[in-house]
Amino acid sequence: MTVFESFILSIFDVLGFIIISLGLLREENQYKIFKKSLIYIFLYSLIMSVIEIIIPIEYIPILVLIFLYIVIYLTYRKGLVFTFKIWFLSTVLILTIQYISLIILNIIIGNIEYKFFYGLISQIIFIFIVIFTFYKIKIHVLLTYINQQKKIAIILLANIFMILIIILMYWRLDIDNLLNNFLDLSILSLSIIFIYFIVIKNGIRNEYEARELEMYKRNLPIIDNLISEVRRKQHEFDNHIQAINSIIYSNSNNNEVVESLKQYTSEIENINDLGNLIKLKDKILAGFLFSKQKESEKNNIQFNIVIENPMIDTKLKSYELIQVLGNLIDNAFETEVEDNVVVVKFLRKYGNDIIEVSNKHPKVEKEKIEKFFEKEFSTKKKKGRGYGLYNVKKRLNKYNIRILVENEYRNEYTSNFIKFRIMF
């Protein structure tokens, strides 16, 4: 294979590696990172095309992995340990996809040979699978799982890694024998890898289910309190109906009846303050907002909940939605503003379900707003802050959900509000 042919095939390798790593990280500015990586893609491909001619073939796989680690580090600048995690997972996924692309090529063409033509077709199939994986498969959960130091996942992924590295070494050292036994080796190795991935997938699913169960246990007492409060309000409502009936039937003067009713109803106008909450489809969310309402009363914060769309539909799981809203509401409660007002709205606009969390706040400059979601950035004076909004953004990025921040002057309060709008 010529230097030029090797250069072309190497471009596919590192391009797929960068795309998969972007899928693992789910960074907000993916396009910017990808443009930055183009120079590294070019340099890597150029270096590898030359190395494959002057270095013994048995050392090539090791050099490939070392250079790919360097590319990942230069692209993201995330630190050596975190870079290793990204490199490790990207290598597992890339080698698996490359192996699958070879199997697909073998099925389509038949007996494949170690030639540029077959390599190019295989790499084209490889890139299509990589792009599909990036857009359609939530591979970022693997990185989350590794970051949580789940031993079973790490062990299984390490086993997959070793199987793929052995195949890669076999490919480099004895290509003819590998191609002759390609079908048998493919069935054996892919079966093992498939089983491992199924175990990891089930482990991740069980983790999510455990989190949801924990969230339900934590919020059930709150929901019980909400139900008790609704029953108490219903009892009060029945008493008020009786009182209104008494006013009507005990007085024959219509003018006096009207005045008495006006006075009485003005005193009980807040009787239905739970009416909005019980409209929500997600009762866990209703219970959570009820607890926040009680918290606001203790802290003398005006907390208004407006529900125009009770059927909010979101990709977020219940515990994730509560984590996001909890961070936003806590952030709004803790603002250092006198006579604070916090408003949560559930809306349907522009074809999207929307949740807005806003609070009374002096106008914030655009440059400062752009830093809101940066790690450790905070407008508050206390130390150890700056993680709430960062975690919100990280959680929403996981599902490609947009969050917008803007100033909004509200005449009814004669004050500026800072508004967070989540669009599902």
Structure description:
There is one protein chain. With 424 residues, the protein is an alpha+beta fold. The chain folds into two domains: 3-180, no CATH class; 273-423, Heat Shock Protein 90. It is built from 14 helices and five strands. The protein has helices at 3-25, 30-54, 60-76, 80-109, 116-136, 140-147, 151-173, 175-180, 182-249, 254-267, 283-298, 318-333, 366-369, 388-397; strands at 302-307, 341-349, 352-360, 402-410, 415-423. A five-stranded mixed beta sheet has the order 1-2-3-5-4. Helix 1 packs across helix 4, helix 9 crosses helix 11 (283-298) and helix 11 (283-298) packs parallel to helix 12. The longest helix is centred in the middle third of the chain and has 68 residues, at 182-249. The radius of gyration is 30 Å and the shape is elongated. It starts with a helix and ends with a strand. This is GHKL domain-containing protein. Residues 316-424 form the Histidine kinase/HSP90-like ATPase domain.
Strand content: 5-15%
The total beta strand count reads: 5
**End-to-end CA span:** 50 Å
Structural class: alpha+beta
Question: Taking all residues together, what is the mean pLDDT?
Answer: 76
Task: Outline the low-pLDDT stretches.
Answer: none
Q: What is the tally of helical segments?
A: 14
Radius of gyration: 30 Å
Helix-residue proportion:
55-70%
Order of helices and strands: HHHHHHHHHHHEHEEHHEE
Using the alpha-carbon principal axes, give the shape. elongated
Q: Tell me which oligomeric state these chains represent.
A: single chain
Major beta sheet, strand line-up? 1-2-3-5-4
The total tally of domains equals 2
| Biggest sheet statistics | 5 strands, mixed
Transmembrane segments: 6-25, 37-54, 88-110, 116-135, 155-173, 185-204
Pfam families: HATPase_c (PF02518)
Keywords: Membrane, Transmembrane, Transmembrane helix
Domain Histidine kinase/HSP90-like ATPase: 316-424
